[in-house]
Amino acid sequence: MRHASGTSSPYxxxxxxxSVVILLDAFAFGLSIGPCLNEVELWGLAAAFVFVLxxxxxxxxxxxxxxxxxxxxxxxxxxxxxxxxxPIYCFQCKFYMRPKSKHCWNCNMCIAGFDxxxxxxxxxxxxxxxxxxFATTFWLLCSLALSxxx
Length: 150
Description:
By secondary structure, this protein is α+β, with helices and mostly antiparallel strands. Helix content is 47%, strand content 12%.
């Protein structure tokens, strides 16, 4: 079964944990700062947290919606491959992979610039979504830091 993205089934328990952590973080921030919002300086903190939370959701969605699949090499690209480097043929996907690509057994597809299959977002991290994955990690750490700020 080909796994299209982190938003498609089969879902993993890790995805549920990430969703619950983000929701609990937002809930805890609201409980801790909500009663104190009559103080003007805390409105800036609340606005920063909302911005960070929206950025986190946007980068998580970008990470899982961008398909990092390797589309294979065309005949012209195969002809230009250095003869000392034989192209690798993927028997599962039935095409020649680009250099630095690897077949992911969780997603059952070849990933361009494969780094790892992230269980937390249930999606492969490769060249095309690598930056979004790091942005997701950054915004998650920022949201956790802001929730403990008050």
